[in-house]
Amino acid sequence: MQRSNDATTIVKEVFPVNFNDLQEAVEQKIPKPNYDYIKGGAGSGQTMRNNRQAFESYSFIPQLLNDTSAVNTSITLFGKTHPTPFIFAPVGMNLLEHPDGEPAVVKAAAKLKMPYSLSTVSSYSLEEVASAAPEHTKFFQLYWSEEDELALNMVSRAEAAGYEAIILTIDTTVSGWREGDRKNQFSPILHGYAKGNYLQDPIFLKDLENGKYKDFVDGVLRNVNHPHLNWSHVEKLRKHTKLPILLKGVLHPNDAVKALEIGVNGLIVSTHGGRQLDGVIGSLDALPNIVKVVGGQVPVLFDSGIYSGLDAFKALALGADAVCVGRPYVYGLAYAGQTGVETVMSNFYDELVTTMQLAGVSSIESLQKIELIQRG
Ligand SMILES: Cc1cc2nc3c(=O)[nH]c(=O)nc-3n(C[C@H](O)[C@H](O)[C@H](O)COP(=O)(O)O)c2cc1C
Ligand SMILES: CCCCCCC(=O)C(=O)O
């Protein structure tokens, strides 16, 4: 993928040029409860701060006079080569940001050739989203339901619709303690933002009709937040699908080892953008130990706090095989629909290329050999 030429860069200058400017601009664009929901983190925000401080704590020394006129940013994941190391993280309920929702996002991802992950709690159904970009690489993120049959049926639907991997999120067994949403008394499910997949699911609909749930909101909540979740569910998923499985939310090396024993195909080191558990170390600080125990057996992906191309550079230098982005692209969606998503993500890409060139590296492999120095 080529870095944008100067003309495109000039056009982009009217677009908020960095994450903080974009976040501020979006505050004026969407209702306050929606904005607070997206921006917010768990508790007092310690994990969110740790995520960002971890990035700030790392620096590096460039090695120059290498010809970097031809930069190759491609990576290989589950047998497919992708031109960039960026992946769209699963972010639920995109009607919170824009009426075009997930179909606009997947189209942007397809245009940029960056794999896309769809959340279980999407505003549009997994089938609708797949048909918006049928040829593009898409992963399906699973919230395990209180009913195994429902979770496994969701996976079968994703397989039938052409999703190429299942991301099982393991850090959302209960909802995080989110002060902003409590202050606003805001529940996105109550406002109908999460109707995409459950209202298309025959098992969910049957349960709803039979009075298993008090109402739709109760049904969704009981299926998203599943505190019984344990390793036996990962084993069940492993038996049910031949698709690659990624565990999202792995922070402890012991969990990484256990996941490998069960036969998962990839890990996502993540604090869920600091939205779930407060008081946790920065995701970037968890990354090196996970990379070490995994030892290249499966890909290690990373998210939480990638707000620029430089951030992506640092996560890759610490051993991530690819980086997932959450809030920045949904802010892009809120700001300017599909074009906004494309602009945010292509700016990240362009800044990554610039950083690689000025650091004297021409491939992700050589980038990964750069030593990062952490301030004590
Ligand atoms: C509004 C919002 C909704 C999210 N919904 C989901 C979801 O449905 N499933 C999931 O696994 N992660 C979800 N996440 C977490 C992201 O996948 C990702 O871990 C996080 O956003 C990364 O941090 P960042 O926002 O700092 O990039 C959500 C994040 C946000 C901001
Ligand atoms: C109360 C429903 C929770 C939906 C989960 C979406 C999510 O993961 C998030 O971080 O928000």
From TrEMBL:
User: Active site annotated at which positions?
Assistant: 272 (proton acceptor)
Into which EC class is this enzyme placed? oxidoreductase
Pfam entry (one): FMN_dh
Q: What is this protein called?
A: L-lactate oxidase
Q: Which Gene3D superfamilies does the UniProt record give?
A: Aldolase class I
Q: Where does glyoxylate bind?
A: 37, 143, 178, 272, 275
Q: Show where the FMN hydroxy acid dehydrogenase domain sits.
A: 11-376
UniProt cross-references to InterPro entries, sorted A to Z: Aldolase_TIM, Alpha-hydoxy_acid_DH_FMN, FMN-dep_DH, FMN_HAD
What protein family does this chain belong to? Belongs to the FMN-dependent alpha-hydroxy acid dehydrogenase family.
- Does the record bear Transmembrane in its keywords? no
Q: Which domain of life is it from?
A: Bacteria
Instruction: Establish whether keyword Metal-binding is in the entry.
Output: no
GO terms of molecular function: (S)-2-hydroxy-acid oxidase activity; FMN binding
Q: Which cofactor does it need?
A: FMN
Question: E.C. number, please?
Answer: 1.1.3.15
**Annotated FMN binding sites:** 90-92, 119, 141, 169, 248, 270, 326-327
Q: Which UniProt keywords apply?
A: Flavoprotein, FMN, Oxidoreductase
